[in-house]
Specification:
It is a single chain. The protein has 22 helices and five strands. It is an alpha/beta fold and 454 residues long.
Length: 454
Amino acid sequence: MCRIMIGESAAAKLSAIPMSNDTVSRRISEMSSDIKEQLIHYIQISPYYALQLDESTDIAGQAQLLTYVRYVREKEIEEDILFCRPLQTRTTGEAIFNCIGLCTDGARSMTGRERGLVARVQQVAPLVQWTHCMVHREALAAKKMPPLFESVLHQAVKIINHIKARPLNSRLFGVLCQEMGSGHEQLLLHTEVRWLSRGRVLQRLYELREEVKLFLTESQTDLAKHLDDAMWLASLSYLVDIFDRLNGLNLCKSLQGRESNVLLLADRVNAFTQKIALWHGRISSGNCDMFPSLADFIADARGTDFSSLLQSAADHLSALKNQFGSYFKEDYRSFAWVRDPFLCSADELSIDMQEQLIELKSDSRLKHLFTTSPLSSFWVAMMPEYPQLCDIALKIILLFASTYLCEAGFSRLTALKTKYRNRAQIEDDLRICLSNIAPRFEDLCKAKQAHVSH
């Protein structure tokens, strides 16, 4: 467990020290308390901070609320775990004094108008701006499909479950793949909760379609007929391609990842929406070269008319573009000057702030700093000279755009709280494991020595 929390090297040093379970637990609690004390101090002196919250159920059936905070520390913007608590404990809102942003998913417990978490926070801090996790919104936008593709997806899941969900079938299919020299030996299970699973599951099925067809034929199941249907396979190839594109938007360095902000992610979503419009225009004219699996399948299946499929794909892309427009309504164009104050104007700002922006643009020293520093660091550094501009810039940059950190934190929670430790309260373990703040070991040792001497 120590290796998961603090790494191999530190765990090796700790293992050489004979300590009882109680001693280890006490030391972890002391280090966690010290980190928490430092974090609260940094939050209190930060001009603003933003929160990211999500809830998940652990192996013991407890609903855990995990919260991350983004704040300004020593001219940098930092992200850190704030707490992880079972939901039966109550938290109060009195301390939320300069919170400017709250990012959650769209669950009713979070966003309900009267009893949701966001509503309760806004009772204490009315200026808090709620942002709906962009990763969650993308999953919702991609969920609705035309009947043709919905049917193909449903049938594909049935095929996979017929093989994968039955241990004997799974073993026999693995042997068949080995004998045929396939690149893979197993299919992947589709999980609705895991938003990336559709693309990966369908791609694996498409790559192993010949092996699956042979196995289903030998099993004498009606599901084998789908893999003899050229239109069904072509539809599957389109789903493989479009979900691969959606997964590309979702994955790290796109909607996921640390140190992201709403401006950056809004730009990426806007670019993806424009790509959908481009794909729609090309596929409407019979060109599907942007979807390689579909293009290759159509090229190999000569003599088959796929015009109805291409029309369904065009309808799907049109609906997908509308769905993205519905779920991503925010317009951040008025904050273009935050992205690049040296190129963009800001006519919507007051005359005083426009004058400050002109001064900033005219300073070649600051332009060099802008090109060599992260956007967040640049605006934090400008606070003493241009407080009004920085006030607006930081309020938008500090906002979390997704609940990615919470999702990553829950993965670590699953590794720490196993069936053998299902009664453990692991907030201290998580804080030491995930925090960017190091415990002040010298102060802890001095406090321990003073306690022992007394």
